[in-house]
Design a protein that fits this description.
globular; alpha/beta; binds S-adenosylmethionine; 8 helices; two-stranded antiparallel ribbon; Rossmann fold
Length: 228
């Protein structure tokens, strides 16, 4: 598949339609996981193991500030990021979700920093981050906006900072569009191409284990600034 074909597919994404879809979804675990609330614990376990391996790298990121992108109700902030970082900022465009984050995070809510009610394609980081977590959200972005967003993230990484992408990938070898929420599920190859365009170097990759059959394979990537 050529770059042109990839771009043409994601170009048909409609940002308003995606936001309208999420506006109708309740601020619950099942809501943000599309009826798959029951896989959250397994997902967090896989992410914890991945993050633990990253925090024990020789050039491990610092533990001051993380950013949760497309945070929903703060599931990852609550169960993962506040366990490792002093401060977690979040980006989430949906008003009802962003308003529910502090309550949902509960006892660690003092660690929640800035709440940015904005879409990723319009976000400009205001500070440096030790870790930026993107999960189940990048399929809403057109390829060119995704490359810009990831490039902005790269520039906002602190020394030894790491960007994480955890996303569904297709096993059919083709990008698949979902008109219901106006999203695209990309192939592994497309992700790698996008990372390269954003000048990000992949230092770790891992497939999420123990998810139910019949859903997309989920991959985690750890990315750093590619200085070459
Ligand atoms: C499947 S949920 C995942 C939430 C969270 N990352 C998690 O794993 O629990 C997708 C989230 O992406 C948000 N979203 C949709 N389009 C977005 C965009 N363009 N920029 C940022 N967030 C977006 C939705 O509002 C929703 O909260």
């Amino acid at each position: 598949m050529t770059t042109k074909e990839i771009e043409n597919k994601s170009k048909s994404l409609n940002y308003d339609k995606a936001l309208e879809y999420w506006a109708e979804i309740p601020a619950t675990l099942d809501g943000v996981l599309g009826g798959f609330g029951h896989i959250s614990d397994e997902d967090i376990l896989g992410s914890t193991l991945f993050l633990r391996s990253i925090m024990s790298l020789e050039k491990a990121p610092g533990t001051k500030t993380a950013l949760d992108c497309g945070a929903g109700i703060g599931r990852i902030t609550k169960h993962l990021l506040t366990n490792y970082f002093d401060r977690v900022d979040v980006i989430e465009p949906d008003e009802k979700f962003i308003n529910s984050i502090l309550d949902y995070v509960g006892e660690n809510k003092h660690k929640v920093g800035s709440l940015y009610q904005v879409s990723l394609q319009d976000f400009n980081p205001e500070r440096k981050y030790d870790l930026i977590w993107n999960q189940w959200v990048l399929g809403y972005l057109k390829d060119n906006d995704l490359v810009n967003f990831l490039s902005n993230c790269r520039e906002s990484l602190s020394e030894n900072g790491i960007l994480i992408v955890k996303e569904n990938v297709t096993s059919s070898g083709k990008a698949e569009m979902d008109p219901t929420d106006s999203s695209v599920t990309r192939t592994l190859k497309q992700f790698l191409k996008i990372f390269k365009s954003a000048k990000l170097k992949r230092i770790k990759q891992c497939k999420q284990l123990n998810f139910p059959n019949g859903i997309y394979p989920v991959y985690m990537f750890a990315l750093i600034c590619d200085k070459n």
